[in-house]
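Tutorial handout. Part one gives the primary structure; part two gives the three-dimensional structure as tokens.
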Amino acid sequence: PYEGKVVSIADFGVFVDFGCEKLGMLPRTGSQAIDTDALDQLNIGTQVTVYVTHLSRDTGKINLGLTPKRVPQTRIWSVLADGRTPYEGTVSNHASFGTFF
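Part two.
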């Protein structure tokens, strides 16, 4: 999870600054829409815990959610990739498609 602050509200979503180089959006419409009642409780300046639910490689847009997204658990070597378990590491390389730790 990330801690962020609501910076803008639009008809189609709520924009959150969560410390990334781009703002993330809590969407009101589309396949990843969030319950409107939950979004209506947010105001500019509200602190909110968010989870990244989708990152578009084509547009760079970041969709956020208010709850963790359920992902299948996969084990790679000794690392559990469940979308919730935190790991610490050192950045070893950057590429256009991601960062290596």
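Part three, for discussion. The longest strand covers residues 2-10. The helical segments are 36-40.
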